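Collaborator request, handled under Task 6.
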Amino acid sequence: MDPNTSPTILGVDIYLVATFLSGIAAVAVLVAIYAATTVRDPMAKRVKALTERREQLKAGITASTSKRRAKLVQKHETADRIKALLSGLKVLQDDQVKVAQRRLLQAGIRTKEWAPAIIFGRLVLPIVLGGTAVYLVYGTQAFSDWSPLKAYGLVAITFIGSYKAPDIWLKNKITKRSDAIRKGLPDALDLLVICAEAGLTVDAAFHRVAKELGRAYPELGEEFSLTAIELGFLTDRRQAFENLAMRIDLDAVKGVVTTMIQTEKYGTPLASALRVLSAEFRNERMMRAEEKAARLPAIMTIPLILFILPVLFVVILGPAACSINDALLSN
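Structure tokens returned to the collaborator:
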């Protein structure tokens, strides 16, 4: 065997593969170091959004100056143009706008004026993407080797997918945000119980819980901070709790809101009711964790077969294959 020849397995140079994998590992280490050293404070952007919401609430209760009104009008000029365009086309309905506004709030997007943009996306994306697909399939020779049924399926999937894309994107953000809030809700209720037993008012308790849980659960801290602000500014405290239930797409939050409204209305003890809810939410969280753990063996079967076992075979049989290859070449 030539000493200058690199060992191979199935015709693949081992040194080349090792060099390539080492380069990927080095890049991954650099990316991990960069991500660890450039961690941003998740509360900075959220505090800014809450401050803007506070100013909007002040503007809705007291008379706004002409300068602030001009600033708000300029800020939402693009959204107003989209709304005017949709109104001119007679495709903008109040029910659709209200549903889009509520879903934007549930996704953590506070600007209600962008609700027509969701409807505008449903209208424009099928025209742009679907029209492009029709041109590529029937106007060019890019898919000439495809059968008519397959070509039609591609066009139909493009139209349907482009129409559903804004809703899918929004639903994905709502689901992620709701899951993050669900994780921190039992801890938030425990802190609310402690604050209530310590004699704090409801708005002060919400503000304290938001401050304590802001870093661990930024989404929940943001919602509680906004609720504390609304409790301090809105004349009807019930409306502040209903806004909290509207902004979070969780039945557990709706139960908490119902409890808070009843305690405000009838004067029932708040700490005992929240303690019961907290225990129920903790049991639900434990049951979800046990359910995920029970599904883990079935989920890990495919990654085990595709990724882990081949690596083990290479590690175990690789040296033997190299020895056999060297022996055959030397003979």
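The cover message to the collaborator said: "Residues 270-330 form the longest helix (61 residues). The beta strands are 8-9, 12-13. Please let us know whether this matches your experimental observations."
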